[in-house]
Structures are given as C-alpha cells and as structure tokens.
C-alpha cells in the first residue's frame, strides 16, 4: 500500500489522478485525514514552493501541483471538522477596485493555501466594503492586496485606512508590478515581490 509520504511525489509531479486514486485508497484504509494533509499533501507542496523559489520549477508546474493538492484536499476536507483543520492563520485577499488582473494573485492564493493558510479569495475589482466584510466574517489575521496598475495601487491606502477606522486588528500584505517596499511601508503594509515571497512574509506576519 502507498505510504502517505509518497503522496508528496504525486504533488511534485502534478499528478492529479494519482492523488485522487491514492488519497481515496488511504481513506479506505482508515488513514488519519490530518496526517494525509500534513505529511502528504502539504509536505509535497512545500517542496514545490522551495523549487519554485530556487528557479527549479515554473508557474505552469506549480499550478499543476496546486491543482493536484486541491483535488486531494477536496476529498479529505469533508472528513475533518473545521476546528480540526490545521491552519497558520486566515488571509483575506483580492485584487483592488479598478484592477482586473488576477494571474499573480491566483498563484499567491494557491501557494498560501498550500503552505497551510485559510485563504478567502475576493477575486478582482474588490472594493473597501468587501474587504471589511470579509475580515469581520472570517476573523482574518492578514489582508492581502494586489494591484498591477499605478492608477489602482493608491486604492490600497483607502482599504488600510478603512480597516483601521473600523478598529480591525489585521496586518497588510501587498504585491504587484508597480509596488515597491518603500511605497508599501509608507502605506503601512509589507511588500512581497512574488508568490513564494508572499508565503514567507505571511508566515512571518502570522508568527508576529
């Protein structure tokens, strides 16, 4: 029978059918769903994240690995109470109002989920009110914002101001082509240059 740790290789290979088949076999053999997630699915994605960071894997391969992991998670999640799901924290994320770019944001979402965060994805063209409602509803720890246009990145300041006016105790993680560490610090946020950097930064924010 397949060892749970071997699931990681199916993730690295982006083998979605292999994940589905073998996760079902493991469940039929009464393997612990939490162990399947931690020692199989997430451990495999951690390797993918490292390889991506080091330039050994590229976006299409990461997306295939993430799809495989999500297929496994879809099978396992119904067997686990929400309170038992391992999580590093909750992140509400969206591309800000006026901006419809989502490829980078979607990759960040997949990588964050793979790292063990609960991610609430608000999509694109996301308004202040949507961020605030989602933070309150999900008791979020971090607000993630993406912008790919110089004309939309200034909206991030409005979101941060509104969250602070509401008294929300969250930290802010931002990214996108026109942003810089200097600008991000100026508006009270932390900058991540790419998806793997977003994961590392989110882990630091969650631990602080």
Description:
With 208 residues, the protein is of the alpha/beta class. Helix content is 56%, strand content 11%. It is built from ten helices and five strands; from the N terminus they run ααααβαβαβααβαβα. The protein has helices at 7-13, 16-28, 33-53, 59-76, 103-115, 128-138, 150-153, 155-165, 181-186, 195-207, and strands at 90-95, 118-121, 142-146, 171-175, 190-191. Strands 2-1-3-4-5 form a five-stranded parallel β-sheet, with helices on both faces. α5 (103-115) links the parallel β1 and β2 (118-121). α5 crosses α10 and α6 (128-138) crosses α8. The longest helix has 21 residues, at 33-53. It starts with 6 loop residues before the first helix and ends with a helix. The mean pLDDT is 92.
What are its keywords?
globular, five-stranded parallel beta sheet, 208 residues, alpha/beta, 10 helices
If helices are DSSP runs of H or I spanning 4 or more residues, what is the number of helices?
10
End-to-end span in angstroms? 41 Å
Strand content of the residues, in percent? 5-15%
Secondary structure class reads alpha/beta
Low-confidence stretches: none
**Helix fraction by DSSP (H/I, runs of at least 4):** 55-70%
> What is the H-and-E element order?
HHHHEHEHEHHEHEH
- Global mean pLDDT: 92
What does the radius of gyration come to?
18 Å
- Number of beta-strand segments: 5
Molecular shape: globular
Q: Widest sheet: strand order?
A: 2-1-3-4-5
Q: Largest sheet, described in full?
A: 5 strands, parallel
């Amino acid at each position: 029978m397949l060892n749970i740790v071997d699931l990681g290789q199916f993730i690295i290979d982006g083998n979605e059918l292999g994940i589905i088949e073998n996760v079902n076999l493991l469940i039929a053999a009464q393997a612990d769903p939490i162990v399947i997630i931690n020692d199989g699915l997430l451990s495999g994605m951690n390797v993918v994240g490292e390889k991506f960071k080091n330039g050994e894997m590229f976006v299409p391969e990461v997306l295939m690995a993430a799809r495989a992991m999500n297929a496994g998670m879809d099978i396992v999640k119904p067997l686990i109470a929400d309170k038992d799901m391992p999580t590093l924290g909750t992140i509400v994320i969206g591309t800000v109002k006026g901006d419809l770019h989502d490829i980078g944001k979607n990759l960040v979402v997949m990588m964050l989920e793979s790292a063990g965060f609960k991610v609430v994805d608000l999509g694109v063209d996301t308004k202040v009110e949507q961020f605030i409602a989602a933070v309150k509803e999900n008791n979020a720890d971090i607000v993630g914002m993406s912008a790919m246009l110089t004309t939309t990145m200034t909206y991030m300041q409005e979101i941060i101001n509104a969250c602070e006016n509401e008294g929300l105790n969250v930290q802010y993680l931002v990214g996108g082509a026109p942003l810089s560490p200097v600008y991000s610090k100026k508006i009270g946020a932390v900058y991540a240059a790419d998806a793997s950097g977003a994961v590392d930064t989110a882990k630091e924010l969650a631990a602080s």
